[in-house]
Amino acid sequence: MLESINLISCNFSRLPLLLKPSRPHQSLRQSPKNLLLLQSRASSSSTFLKSDKILHHNHRFLRKDTFFHICKSSLNNPEPEKNQIQEEGRDWSSSILLFALWGALLYYCFNLAPDQTPTQDLYFLKKLLNLKGDDGFRMNQILVGLWYIMGLWPLVYGMLLLPTARSKTPAWPFIVLSFFGGVYALLPYFALWSPPSPPVSETELRQWPLNVLESKVTAGVTLVSGLGIILYSVVGNAGDWMEFYQYFRESKFIHVTSLDFCLLSAFAPFWVYNDMTTRKWFDKGSWLLPVSVIPFLGPSLYLLLRPAVSETIAPKDSASSDPNT
């Protein structure tokens, strides 16, 4: 049984003198010769060795200033390097920067953003929510398009973050909140996210919401809807752009929403890259990375063309696949 044990690490600790040796002291050092001597004597005494246990050797060879070895087996640890990486301390520098960005954005939105037309903002919000009937006022087409495209961004991020960007912190509460708060609700998850993502099973992929988020129908409807909204906004009255720019300079509602759209567009290429590499599609789909820079349309096109989650990401749920069972 000793031959089947792979020694991968040794921790050294002091062992007090238990008994007086009946023969001259022999100091044990970290040499291969002494290790072979200990192993041969341990095997001759028919001591059963188990993984992650202290190897008990003959106490006659131990002295007060002797080091004894706590040896661990790799039989139950098929990926020791991966576990060692996960046990190392996490680098919080990017998380601190993202939290600082989040705090700075919130401070700017509440204290520094222009707020010259609060009454008009409330009126626009009621019109966009269909809480106010037709009163003859023509809404700016760019503002209307921005409002509806912001309702599709959380769906795009849901398809990018689930399942390939999951973390110990659940992503779905932040995605749900992003329907109301946009990027201001997603930034805390970006800061708390730590790779690698846990594997997702085939059973989870067949259940809601992953079966909807991984569907090509969902991706196609999202892309077509976004394209229609953008065309509606762009192909319109040329004076709408000047009017929208004036709104941006005066209205907090439009200013903060426009900033939200820009930030969602800026973060999307990173999550496209993360999803692409997790699906092991970077060699074939790398041309979509520069395309993903195009606001909304680029990430939506990637979601339509990306492959399904591979077997390496979605292992089968059969317990018989475990060789130890």
Question: What does the model show?
Answer:
It is a single chain. With 325 residues, the chain is mostly helical. The chain has a two-stranded antiparallel sheet. The longest helix has 27 residues. The protein is globular. Keywords: Membrane, Transmembrane, Transmembrane helix.
Annotate the secondary structure layout.
Blueprint: E1 10-14, H1 32-44, E2 67-71, H2 80-87, H3 93-112, H4 118-128, H5 141-161, H6 172-181, H7 183-192, H8 202-205, H9 210-213, H10 216-234, H11 239-250, H12 252-278, H13 282-285, H14 288-291, H15 297-305
Antiparallel strand pairs: 1-2
Helix pairs in contact: 3-7, 5-6, 5-10, 5-12, 6-7, 10-15, 11-12
Low-confidence runs = 1-33, 35-87, 317-325
- Compute the number of strand runs: 2
How much is the radius of gyration in Å?
A: 30 Å
Element-level helix/strand string:
EHEHHHHHHHHHHHHHH
How much helix is in the residues?
40-55%
First-last Cα distance: 19 Å
- Characterize the biggest β-sheet: 2 strands, antiparallel
Q: Helix segment count?
A: 15
Task: Give the overall shape.
Answer: globular
Write out the strand line-up for the largest beta sheet, numbering strands in chain order: 1-2
Strand content: under 5%
Structural class: mainly alpha
Q: Give the rounded overall mean pLDDT.
A: 76
In short:
By secondary structure, the protein is mainly alpha-helical. It has 15 helices and two strands. It has helices spanning about 30-45, 80-85, 95-110, 120-130, 140-160, 170-180, 185-190, 200-205, 210-215, 215-235, 240-250, 250-280, 280-285, 290, 295-305, and strands spanning about 10-15, 65-70.
